[in-house]
Design goal:
The protein has 19 helices and 19 strands. By secondary structure, the protein is an alpha/beta fold. Helix 7 (215-228) packs across helix 13. The longest helix is centred in the first third of the chain and has 32 residues, at 139-170.
């Protein structure tokens, strides 16, 4: 299929394919090669580079041309708080439908730049490669601009340094799981002592939630309810989409960059000073959990809502000895190589967060899982109750902030957790009288305003759906972090539900898919495909893309490779073969000409450019991309 047509953005002052003004830097090399059915071109630009930053974070800027025509280009990633310079070498890779001028307009470069990006294709308007523009100058404004640029450059460099240090902890993951998990987990006690967090954690009013599916949504609902009731809140969830700061919310807002850096350095320096070969630096997730404890204790939140990272018993968040209440979201088969091969074994690991005398709630579970949960609760003297799914009428004609029928299960668990927390804190007057009556207004407000990126989220692409030229184009992303067979089915049903009313124009449904290599695609893709087919959804194309964090960890200085050929696409090609087999049987596994119904892209930006190009070329068709 055709790929990535070039079209400048509105306001760039150039038409699609128009040559750039003479001030554009020269293209030093231009070469073309063929990849199967995709024609690809690699453009490399060389220019002298300076680093510049001005204005609020959401804006982009470029230096005015000097008499020697030296320009400044940088990629503005406001979500991760860093600036990536583009001068010495910009490597761009695109799939084209027409010849590209040797001096492309900067808007074209911006649209085709191999941008470091997250594992979920959330369109971020602030991400741009700026084009040169004239800047009014005076001695006063120049001095102010220089000061702002210097301060911004320092802040950006510091944030990138922090991201690099966090990345260094990822490499320790294998070592952490190579031995006994219990012995490794015992290191958390040493870390807490080093950071002087034992007492602050003991005083913290914690709600602790484990589970396979929906634990992040449950935590989000719970935090939103209590915040709506007037309490200051801290929320720790995982993973993040664009910026690691998303994992830490204070009163419903991602922690500021300033506070994040402050608490990061406090923890990092203390741990670096006291750790050694016997007590090494904590692994990535453990460090983030420790950082969350520091943030919430220092900010003196009324309630801290903690989502378990993996399992429960040996999770880094399980250092909380006396939470106010615990919750178990829906259980299923996941991380079986660590947690066990049966639902009973998995449930036993999740029940590791139960504490003696601390009340606990669970979403409705399969019988095997429920037996294991009840057994562990009985051993500890825990009052374990089933939290029934919320009924729509309890919301008084309002809707949940997180969409999807399955969210009523998570909301029901959140209501039980928030109610118990309120009761334990002496706020009985705010608790719902019974589980069938309409909820109090503060509960409804919290549930309806809850938000969490990448969970049953719908995003209209701003680059395609805005502007006079694109008024007839439509590209909508339907995002969900489904990662188990059950959640794949739920995702398929959710997509059908939210799109069933929008059948006034022809639509093209595209699957944009990636999963980590530790997961079995034969346990995921069949559930998605079968459930979609049963609900009348048929995919016109499947796009497989790599996990950008393989080479762009956390948005750090480990940016995209200079040569796209360095990207290992073997896993994505394996996913494509699985998809072909599901569609065509064994013949599909050996189909070398599979571009009719599936494609492999080297990055998310390239896949998104392909989607945008097709949306513009097929104006009578509404493009719906499910991720």
């Amino acid at each position: 299929m055709a790929a990535a047509a070039v079209s400048p953005s509105a306001g760039t002052g150039g038409g699609g394919g128009a040559a750039a003004p003479s001030r554009d830097p020269p293209i030093s090399r231009y070469k073309q090669r063929h990849d199967g059915n995709l024609r690809t071109r690699l453009l490399e630009e060389k220019a002298q580079t300076e680093e510049e930053e001005e204005g609020p974070p959401a804006t982009t800027a470029a230096a005015a041309p000097s008499p020697t025509h030296t320009h400044t280009y940088y990629y503005d990633d406001t979500s991760s708080g860093r600036r990536i310079r583009g001068g010495a070498r910009l490597s761009l890779r695109c799939t084209c439908t027409r010849h590209m001028p040797h001096r492309p307009h900067l808007a074209q470069l911006r649209r085709l730049l191999l941008l470091p990006c997250s594992s979920v294709p959330v369109p971020v308007p602030a991400r741009r490669l700026s084009s040169p523009r004239a800047m009014a100058s005076s001695s006063v404004s120049a001095a102010a601009a220089a000061a702002a640029q210097a301060g911004g450059a320092v802040a950006a460099a510091e944030y990138e340094d922090v991201m690099g240090r966090l990345s260094s902890l990822i490499t320790q993951k294998v070592r952490a799981h190579s031995g006994n998990r219990g012995n490794q987990w015992d290191l958390m006690a040493h870390y807490l002592q080093i950071l002087e967090l034992e007492e602050p954690i003991a005083r913290m009013k914690v709600i602790h939630v484990a589970g396979t599916k929906g634990k992040g949504s449950t935590c989000t609902f719970t935090e939103a309810i209590l915040r709506s009731c007037g309490f200051s809140t801290g929320l720790f969830t995982s993973p993040h989409l664009m910026d690691v700061r998303e994992r830490f919310r204070l009163n419903g807002v991602d922690i500021s960059e300033e506070k994040f850096l402050k608490y990061f350095w406090w923890c990092w320096n203390k741990l670096k000073e006291k750790t050694d070969d016997d007590i090494p630096m904590p692994t990535y997730f453990r460090f983030l959990a420790l950082l969350a404890f520091k943030i919430f204790s220092a900010e003196q939140v009324d309630v801290a809502v903690l989502e378990v990272g993996l399992g429960g018993k040996f999770d880094a968040t399980n250092v909380v000895e006396a939470p106010v209440v615990c919750g178990i979201a829906s259980l299923g088969y996941d991380h079986m190589e660590i947690l066990g091969n049966t639902l009973g074994e998995i449930a036993g690991e999740k029940a590791g967060i139960f504490k003696k005398g601390v009340p606990a709630y669970t979403a409705p579970q399969p019988e095997e899982a429920m037996i294991a949960l009840k057994q562990r609760a009985s051993e500890l003297g825990v009052s374990l109750q089933v939290a029934h799914p919320l009924e729509p009428h309890q919301l008084k004609d309002q809707h949940l902030g997180l969409r999807g029928e399955h969210q009523y299960v998570n909301a029901g668990l959140a209501v039980a957790l928030a109610s118990t927390w309120l009761e334990k804190q002496g706020h009985v007057e705010r608790i719902p009288l019974n589980r069938t009556d309409p909820l109090p207004d503060q509960f409804i407000s919290g549930l309806s305003n809850a938000s969490l990126q990448g969970r049953a989220q719908i995003i209209t692409d701003s680059q395609v759906n805005s502007g006079e030229e694109d008024k007839d184009c439509s590209l909508v992303f339907y995002l969900d972090g489904a990662h188990s067979p059950e959640s794949m089915e739920i995702c398929a049903r959710w997509f059908r539900h939210v799109t069933k009313e929008d059948r006034t124009v022809p639509s093209s449904v595209i699957l944009l898919f990636n999963c980590m290599s530790v997961r079995d695609p034969m346990r995921l893709l069949p559930h998605l495909l079968d459930t979609s087919t049963q609900n009348g959804v048929h995919f016109d194309m499947a796009l497989f893309v790599p996990n950008q964090s393989q080479y762009n960890k956390l948005g750090t200085n480990s940016s995209a490779p200079a040569e796209p050929e360095q990207i290992d696409l073997s896993w994505q090609l394996s996913l494509q073969r699985v998809w072909q087999k599901l569609l065509h049987g064994d013949k599909g596994m050996n189909n070398t000409n599979s571009s009719e119904n599936s494609l492999v892209f080297e990055s998310l930006p390239l896949a998104m450019e392909w989607l945008r190009t097709n949306a513009r070329q097929n104006r009578s068709t509404s493009f719906q991309a499910i991720k």
